Fold Aminopeptidase N.
Amino acid sequence: VAVRLVDYRPADFLIDAVALDISLDRTASKVVATLSLRRNPKGAPGAPLSLDGDDLTLVGVKLDGRPLGPQDYTAAPDHLLLEKVPDGPFTLEIETRVDPSANTQLSGLYRSGSAYCTQCEAEGFRRITYFLDRPDVLSVYTTRVEGDKGEAPILLSNGNPVKSGNLPDGRHYAVWRDPFPKPSYLFALVGGDLGALRDSFTTMSGRKIDLAIYVEHGKEARATYAMDALKRSMRWDEEKFGREYDLDVFNIVAVSDFNMGAMENKGLNIFNDKYVLASPETATDGDYAGIEGVIAHEYFHNWTGNRITCRDWFQLCLKEGLTVFRDQEFSADMRSRAVERIGDVRGLRLAQFPEDGGPLAHPVRPEVYHEINNFYTATVYEKGAEIVRMLRTLIGDETFRRGMDIYFERFDGTAATVEDYLSCFAEASGRDLSHFALWYSQAGTPILSTEGAYDPQAKTFSLTLKQHTPPTPGQSEKKPLVVPVAFALFGENGEKLELASPDARADELARGLIELTDAERKITFAGVASRPVVSALRGFSAPVRLEPAPESADLEKLLACDDDPFNRWQAAQSLALRAIFARVDAAKKGAQTPQAPGFIGALRTILAGADADPAFAAQALSLPSEIDLAREAGHDVDPDVLFSARYGLREEIGRALGADAEPIYRRLSDAGPYSPDAASAGRRMLKALALDLVAAGDPEKGSALARSQFAAAGNMTDRLGALTLLALLGGEAREAAFAAFYEQYKGDALVLDKWFSLQATIPEPATTKRVVDLMRHPDFSLTNPNRVRSLIGAFSNANLTGFHALDGSGYDLLTRIVLELDPKNPQLAARLLSALRSWRTLEPRRRGLIEERLRHIAAQGNLSPDTKDIATRALS
Ligand code: ARG
Ligand code: ZN
């Protein structure tokens, strides 16, 4: 069934308080929910009470303490309906039974390892008890959890601990109370035998908060970095947004079976353990950064998501886009702002641009959905964060902060909308934001173009900016958006020019920020002594595609002189793309392979200056990935052709720069003990890049260096880096390294995930068979989402040539897994299937093969709503 934003109406009832009594049992957990209900003054008068359920078994219902008979209600696994209820306040006591062991969907109450845990966002609470399972019904929860003392010595829920005690038959209980009204999706419960890392944090007003991170026994030390990140997040939110933590305790639990990254349940965050556990021996620099970001993200939700929640699921970006923006800013403050921005934009282009340009495109605030779980997307999260960033860019940092203050002040304790949010910034800035708001409702990535004309006589330079947005499903006509274009002009000697023009407002010129609000705008700058170089969309000031890229000579100049590091990186990327596509064109025409001396010269300069900012240099020296190439090509994509062109350029660069790279590699090899900080991570990134350059020019030498690095590595970043190179180089050395890696880490699930992933991404035809064989490996399992993603997700999303093999074997593999997984874990199946979202950009043969599989999937009876929705939309 389609759910539409325009159909929103308030609930007919409110639930002021919920008392839950949950007795944990592996197959028959008993749930007694006592709801304090009353009619919503904003609801339909006299309406029946209709509660949501999903897969529930009802045991009994009492109204104001009186047991009801079957004539008083209708109950089904998916709803409980009471036609007649009192007009005044009343209580309803509902008893249900749930089987956590049979819950393979990982939504509701389920088991991960030997622990009980929950995941209620978006609609999992209705798998625990009948409820008004919608985010605009806010209640105060008191939760009593009971369990076996041996099986579950730890019993946790939201809020503050109230009391606990022993019971007969080896059981015990704990009562938790959360004084902050919250929607049901923020409910959580954990029971299990877990170890804890404990700490405390004193808030800005001097309140001492007890912190704990619960993990598998023996892994407590691996939560140290997460704990440190949590305390830094708490401090940062006080300093940057004035937000103080509000309960007496803050608990985090790491579980190994989790559909997503983590969940911000009030006072009890539940995490995929991948975003908690780290040690130098088992986690890479990327893993450490991921932990820091996700810990911050979930913590920041306490205000943006929990204290102020969403009126309905169409407003998901209200909490997610804003919270991603906040975690990005946190990481930028903790690490390097430039490197963070480059990484965030790479992520946006990798995941969101293809979504926005294909059949699954939807607005940041969608207007219709069939399955809300399919809308936890890169568009809602990452493009949602870009909208918040643009807003800040437009109104300025201070006004933005004032708007946030108004938002927290005015909407605390409510379920808000995007309009509510924007109204705070309209008030703070005095601006009309109604045109800006179009970013929330119009899907698709706008294309921005710039055209410059220099008049040497008049000494003027005219810059014409144009925007247009290609059509997306259901939106054929697009309007111009408010696009903030940060820009600068550079003169002959690389100096930044003063801007003077009658066509722009003084504040636009002073800030170097042009606001493009129409389809086209022309600005003529006066007093320009020679043809300038334009640096546009600095810092990636809007989530658009800038096309075409400046001409190569200008890019080389920007690479040398731009004081915006993002655009310096962008210049290197644009040059690389141009060099690769020149090879693609030559290959298509059967012409001689073009060389790229200008580009290689520019890379040599970056390499020579790499010590000044190793992380930046490594980013600038990295070629765009094959996925980047496929996206930039946009149509008739032949992955094999893209792969050879990229691989050929890599060799050309290696032959030219390998000798320069080797001493850098050797110098960086002697780094001392591991530290996860950004500067050290940057040096390791540069070292990996240098090794790749050596290997690209001289595979034998590269292999020898990689083998010794693999054997001697003192941390996972270096070990996995070496293994990545050996995997690419192939042969005996590769197989030996994979075997040794397995032997060393076979007891560690998170490290084994890396072992599976890396094999799935080997760019050669034999990989499909390798993946099929790995599915029969004793360590492979379809029930663990991390493991499925590490093998199947990596193969279908990150191995362009392997997955898109012309015999269709990759597509068959994905089809088989999706259909096998669908009845067990539909959320995961649907997500895996969305790997096919860009199928129409492929060349005709592959397009045909995928279409056949999509039709086959869509035609299955009994398909979950999740997978059905993706298959149907992908074909639309
Ligand atoms: N709110 C969580 C986060 O952003 C994501 C949970 C989504 N879960 C789901 N099954 N849809 O951190
Ligand atoms: Zn979130």
Residues 639-668 form the longest helix (30 residues). Residues 297, 301, 320, 323 surround zinc ion (ligand 2) (CB under 6 Å). The CA atoms of residues 578 and 734 lie 32 Å apart.
